[in-house]
Amino acid sequence: MDNDIENFIRWVKSSGLTSTISTHIDDINMMTHLDLSKKKIRELPESFGVLKNLTVLKLSNNRLKKLPHSIGQLKNLKNLQCENNLLEEIPSSIGDLSKLMILNLNGNRLKTLPEEIYKLTNLTRLTIAANKLESLSIGLEKLTKLLYLSLDTNELDELPDAFSKMNSLYYLDISYNNLSFLPKSISEIDELETLLLEGNHLQNLPSLESHDMLIKLDLSDNSLSSLDFNVSKLEDLKILILDNNELTGLPDEVCSLKNLTNLSVSANCLEKLPENIGDLQKLEELDVEDNNLDSLPSSIENLKNLKNLYIQNNNNLERPKTLDLEFCDM
Q1: Interatomic CA distance for residues 224 and 309, integer angstroms
Q2: What is the pTM of this model?
Q3: Domain boundaries, the chain
Q4: What gap in Å lies between CA 111 and CA 48, rounded to an integer?
Q5: Would you call 279 helix, strand, or coil by DSSP?
Q6: Which of the listed CATH numbers 3.40.50.300, 3.30.830.10, 3.80.10.10, 3.90.830.10 matches domain 238-330?
Q7: Which of 53, 54, 109, 213 has the most CB atoms around it within 10 Å of its CB?
């Protein structure tokens, strides 16, 4: 242990970090928070494991290609931030961080995750966006305490059917991958409030009707020709984004979403809007640009809370005259 501390102190001095990390042994032993973000660090020593009392470790925006195996010795760690590095792999010892609650691996070069990462059953927030992940293990189902999961901007072409036990998950972002279908267990996430699916290759959806707490649903940039579930069941929905799909119409059930404030269906193949669109009394923004609309339903005049209306690139649509709009493109 003494040698490890000496080696760690030597690394601190050689890396020019003495203004950030004390070289007093007592201070090292008692350190609970360490922020090494933006220090141009290329490598961490194996002696890093001497920081036994760390609960928060921030390593973001460096040049790390790997983490030391000794990272697993930081048994008290609850928050590990490794965003925007050059990480190509995660050591299997990460599975020893049994108290870890927050893990941020965004913006690295990870293609796979070690199976040991699924031992982190106290994780509440896991973000692995902007990597090169090609697959995930069914072991994901063990992370039952997750509240927030971000997997966007990777190379996933399928997801494991691993969501049925994630009853606390309220935020799920799997946008900008290569997904052509979703596992059925996504329908079983009871507490979901935000579901982001844009930028995939989805043609069909599993039933989303059970997500009655959903507030935001983004399905833009897919290949959907219809909404093949009863959207009216999403009673709390405020934001619905369907841009750049292949929709030729919207189901009338959309107009029963009494809490909807934003509806965006630009760049589709819409030839008309539901006649009862005026029922969306809380609607503040409506985007129907780049469609094939010849006219707007007369009931649109009932949208007294509508502030922004986007109608460019249709068939000579006229601005509704009785609405007090803050913005209307023509």
Answers
A1: 23
A2: 0.95
A3: 238-330
A4: 25
A5: helix
A6: 3.80.10.10
A7: 54
Where are the strands (E) in 65-105, listed by range?
79-81, 102-104
Q: Please provide the size of the chain in residues.
A: 330
Q: What is the pLDDT along the chain (330 residues), one digit of tens a residue?
A: 578 999 999 999 999 999 999 999 999 989 999 999 999 999 999 999 999 999 999 999 999 999 999 999 999 999 999 999 999 999 999 999 999 999 999 999 999 999 999 999 999 999 999 999 999 999 999 999 999 999 999 999 999 999 999 999 999 999 999 999 999 999 999 899 999 999 999 999 988 888 889 999 999 999 999 998 889 999 999 999 999 999 999 999 999 999 999 999 999 999 999 999 999 999 999 999 999 999 999 999 999 999 999 999 999 888 898 898 988 886
Written as six digits, the tokens of 99 are 């108290």
Is residue 31 a contact partner of residue 54, using CB atoms and an 8 Å limit? yes
Closest CA to 278 of 295, 264, 292, 298: 298
Could you give the angle at the alpha carbon of 297 between the alpha carbons of 291 and 299, nearest 5°? 140
Q: Is the Cβ–Cβ distance between 1 and 50 less than 8 Å?
A: yes
